[in-house]
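Category: protein sequence paired with discrete backbone structure
Discipline: computational structural biology
Format: plain text, a pair of labelled lines
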Amino acid sequence: MLRIFGRPLSHKGQLSRREVLRAGALSMGGLTLADLFRRTAHAETVKRAKHCILMLLNGGQAQHDTFDMKPLAPDSIRGPYQPISTRVPGIQICEKLPLLAGLTHKMAIIRSMNHHLLGHNTGAAYALSGHSPTSDQEIVPKPTDHPTYGSVIAKTLPSPEWMPSFVLTPTYLFDMGFPTPSAGGGWLGKAYDPLPVVRNRMMAASPKWEGKLPIPDALQLPETVNSGRLTARQTLLKSMDEGFADAHRVAGLQTLDSHQSKAMQLILSPKTQAAFDLSRESPQTHDRYGRFEMGQVMLLARRMVEAGVRFVTANAVSNPVNTTLSSFQIWDTHRDHFRLYNDNLLPEFDQSLSALITDLDERGLLDETLIVVMGEFGRTPKINTNDGGGRDHWSRAYSIQLIGGGIRGGVVYGATDQHAADVTDLPVKPDDIAATLYESLGISHDLILHDQKGQPHKISEGQPLTALMS
């Protein structure tokens, strides 16, 4: 079911300019990058996002205890939480999310997400790219992996002058020690990997977090090399390169030069380094987001957008005490589920996401910033008997949220059965979220890009959820 402000929406006969453009694109069987740039001049009136923040709930958030509650289900499924009314009549969410309950008018809640994978890395690869691995055994990155959203955007859209196009915080994602497939450039190449903010440089014991973030390792010079020496080295390298510059110079070397130049700009720019400095925020702002890692990650994401970064993958991590769970996958609550949700995960999630939404809105940035809140899957309907009770991996039905960036607020899209176990209406796959994300940013979802060997690839195989788009 699709509901807006508590009422069903009929989308029949309401073709937007975006849909007309999309229909034209489909008739071509796929667009090239040149086609995209030509189309941009004819679609200036379409409301588009300029930035995207992917709040990744690494490990998988339980739909039953957040956005798709089933109060009439047995206790072994529904859990201890009660639903509460929200800003939008007819929409209820978990009582542990009171701040977000006041912001549902800004939010599209999709309750009908589903796919076939149950592994963290494969599920994350699907969530991060909109392209499914062929099996749950594909857990190690390969050069042929489909690139993640931020990498496609870095390739496709103009980059900010003094900032990277794509930032990942707080560092690369992993499960069992392996990097996550499709978290970087994949077949576009490592040049389109994100700039990672190294996690252990952000660590601090909650609640003693002081909001200080050293410059990411990627932007730091060795102690023996200052900016003057680096500039001198660059000048020498350039003079040597000019001696080889002729009509036979390979394109790969020219590409390398452009990436070297961008790297130099980032390293030497005070603007870049200042953008990563959380100590420039007021104590009140740190308090507003929460003096815990999830809050400070969301605050950094806002600073990145404000500085012009196109795409931020923000891993919603937490650091609770007395748990054996990896804080990278703290949402992976096979045990201690309700203690972690009570004491850490839901309060931190509620505070940090609501602060991000409100802060972007107050700064006039929410309309141009798409926030995607999702994990790689959901959690099982039945509560297991592990210590403290837990929920296991479940991908047949789960919930995500889309906020800002031209997305209609006050919407519930799709539905599940009485146990939130299976989708019963308007099924959505990560492929469709990929298509929606790209279209929201003004990129045709059937755009064709070429890999490093010159082979063509469609950036998405899904269909955009046009009913949710302004």
